[in-house]
Each structure stands twice: as structure tokens, then as C-alpha cells.
Amino acid sequence: MRIALDAMGGDFGLQPNFDGAIAALNENPYLRITLVGDESLLAPLIAQSGFSEDRLCLKSADGWIEMKEKPVEALRKKPNCSIIVCWQLMATQQVDAVVSAGHTGAVVAAGLRTRLFLKGVKRPGIAVALPTTKGKTVLMDVGANPGARPEHLVQYGTMGSIYAREMLGIERPTVGLMNIGSEDGKGTDDLRDSLALFANSPFRDRFVGNVEGRDLYQGGADVVICEGFVGNVLLKAAEGMVDMLMKSVSAEILGALDTERPKALDAFNALGKKFEYHEAGGAPLMGVDGIAIICHGSSNSRSIYNALRVASTLKDRRINEQIVDELTAEIAHASLPGV
Q1: pTM score above 0.85
Q2: What angle do CA 188, 193, 199 make, to 5 degrees?
């Protein structure tokens, strides 16, 4: 497994990326990582790591995209920045995957510029697995494709179902469409058109119809589909809510406990881990020819380690091959007379 890691991406700079890479290499003897970034900073760390060039190597890049920059404009001004070099390595098949905690918009935009789409995919989307009262739900898309068209959303249903099946172990995942109401007539024209396409899709027997925002964390569907603007707002609102609730629980409940405090603290930490994005590592950009994992900007070394692990698992489970096979079958089905 060969992975290009954007060593300059993220809010905390180089160190979490490097430490996460070392942890992954120590665990997986079949992993090879290319650190992409500032040679003057990376070369001494690699030399001191104890790993041979076959396991840990360097690819120099000129600069990186900062969070405050506009993605498309920044990519144009920095044609050899770290995330572009990562995608170039995958486009030329020098690596199997790209992992970055950098600017999400820049990671997606740089990937779209390569046109590395899987056969049949109209537009890639980002999938995340969220905790619910029933287990986990895949939400897709959470930011790659704002303003997605109905045909994009139906493909997200296929890709999200494969992710839920192979990564979460849900054999026949149900699929729902995020909307402002459960009734068929609700939402925009695009959502109503999407509903009709979903009802006639190859997974129509698993389609539960519209789901509302409050149903997301109740497990209303195993896979919930939305366009990228809505998905990104949902995801970030949830992050803020969890952070507020955990701080409130810590202040109000733990502060009131006495003899049972150690036991309650263990339960509190276990609950926090359930919602902790560091444990998930990152979210895959589904539909690209290769593997791309987008990490949270504030990722620590454990986040990066888990993202590298997820990238390896996606390859082992042959996620992309399954996407191509199922989309090819759907296209063939749609072309049949009377369908």
C-alpha cells in the first residue's frame, strides 16, 4: 500500500502528520508512505526516523494551501503546492492513495482538476460515518459537491451503500434522502426529481424516502444522501453541538458527583470517544480513481494514523472496483427498453 501524505496540511503543521505516519508504519509492515512538503523540514525527520527509503520517502513541494485562502485561486498561484503534488503522484500511479488534513476545498478542487473519476461516476462526494442511536449512518455528500444534481445524488446512494456495507458491516443498508419533510411533495424541484429517481433506482427496495434532519441521529436510514452544502452544514452543526453537550455534561454532572466520580468519568470518556472524530481519522472522497482521505483540519497524530489505516482498508475491501461494477450494472439497467 503506497500512500502520499500531505505533510504540510492541517492546523498544527508538520508534526502531527509525521508522528501519525510513523505510528502507521510501525503497525503495518506492508505500508509505504511518501511525505509531501517542505524538504528542508522533512528531510531531517526522515533521516532520524530509522525507516529505509522503501518505507518512508520524501517528495518536495513548494508551499501549501492555508485555511484562509480561496481554493481555486490558491491552486492557480501555487501549482507545485503539497496537495497538488500528492494528487499528481496518484494520477501517475506512483501511489495508491492521498491523505490530507489540509483545506478541504483545495483537496477536492485539486482532485477534480486531475479528472481521476471512476468509470461511470459523474461527480465524487465525501462520505462520513456518524454515530446514531442504532449504530452508525453514512452521510454523503458533506462538502465536495454543493448544488449536486439529482443524478449525482442517486450515484451517492450507490457509493454510500457500498461504503456502509464494506466498512460498517451493514449487509443491506437502507437509503434515505435528506429533506425538510418526509412527505413526497416537500423540498426543491431538484429534491422532488431526485425522489423519483431514487424510487426507480436499483436499490429502490431499500429506499425509505425522505428523512428529516432530526431523523439523522435516530438511525432513520443507514445511508442519508444530500448535496454538499447541506451536508457540510449538518456535519459542522453536529460537531458544535457535541462539543457544547460534552462540556455541559462535564461541568454539570461530573461536578456534582462525589464517590462515584471515577466510574462516571470512565463512562464520560467512553461516550466522548464515540463522537470523537480523531477515532474516525478522515472521510473518503468517493468516486475518484484511487483513494483520497480528507481529514479534519485540527487532526492530531492519532487522526492521521487512523486516516492512513482507513485508506489501506478501503483498498483491501476493493471499494472502487465495486463502485464501478454496480454503476456499470445500473447504466445497463437504465438502458433496457421500458425501464
Answers
A1: yes
A2: 125
